[in-house]
Amino acid sequence: MKQRKRYERSDVLALGAHKTRNALLALAVVVTVVVTGVSVLWNLAQANSNLGDTGLSASIKKDGGKNTATVNTQLSDHVVTTVLVFIHADKNESVLSSAKLLSLDQSAGKGCIVNLPADMTVTLDNTQTTLSEVFGKQQSKGSIGVVSTATGVKISHVMVVDSYGWKKVLELSNVGATQLARQATELLGLLHTDMSAPDLLNLAETAHGIGKKNVAVIDAPCTSVAGTDGATQTLIDSEQLGLAIGTLVAK
Questions:
Q1: Sign for the pseudo-dihedral over CA of 162, 60, 130, 170
Q2: In the chain, fewer beta carbons within 10 Å around the N or the C end?
Q3: Could you tell me which residues come within 8 angstroms of residue 107 by beta carbon, excluding any fewer than 6 positions away?
């Protein structure tokens, strides 16, 4: 029996061992360039940003509080990241326009944006006042503790933005790390936060993983009571809030 001769087609590229190795090396180079490009973009943006504010970090460490259980609840074992967002007036950083509590429950794969009333009742130096008044006197660094105490929620991070900056923050769940890096110059110029660039990237990736459809927007559960001076006080219902964001579970 005659042995068939094997012919190689001239129009088909045969991948030898060296060609496979070269292809892998080329892929590695591309990945390195992409990663380096993202890093460079972030470094350039961060140079002129208010990221990694050590004063805010110190305030969170000192006054960020802890999650507080109630008579009817116990602490959850969920991994929950909470970001306190102070939105100041567009032309006056000393005036609090509104406040939000962004909560990302990684264990449950869901999140909440809680609208906190600017006139919510808080306690400062054993005296009842409002969040907006505290912010006007002490700004963000001096307002973290009163919010944590009033809500019974541990604060993980803080952001300070104007209304446009908050709009850009809301878009984080719609972009990945590479897209976020491309927007770094604008975004980081709007943010004042304790978070570093890697922290912000991690937050964006967590939000992106949870997905916008799984993030609910709610008003903070509140009760209204008459104060000693006859004025109406707005108190946060810490039990209902903790249940809503996943830091507490019913007994």
A1: positive
A2: N
A3: 77, 78, 79, 80, 246
SS3 helix, strand, coil % of the chain, rounded to 5? 40, 25, 30
Predicted TM-score (pTM) of the model is 0.78
Digitized pLDDT (tens) for each residue of the chain, 251 residues in all: 555 555 555 554 454 555 555 555 555 544 444 444 445 444 544 444 578 899 999 999 999 999 999 999 999 999 999 999 999 998 899 999 999 999 999 999 999 999 999 999 999 999 999 999 999 999 999 999 999 999 999 999 999 999 998 988 887 656 555 666 666 667 777 889 999 878 888 888 898 889 889 999 999 999 988 776 667 889 999 999 999 999 999 99
Asked if 99 and 175 touch (Cβ cutoff 8 Å), the reply is no
Per-residue tokens: 160:
């300070």
The residues, ordered by sequence, that sit 6+ positions from 94 with a Cβ below 8 Å of its Cβ are 88, 135, 136, 139
Torsion angle of C-alpha atoms 194, 199, 205, 208, degrees rounded to 10: 0
Q: Are 78 and 93 in contact (CB under 8 A)?
A: no
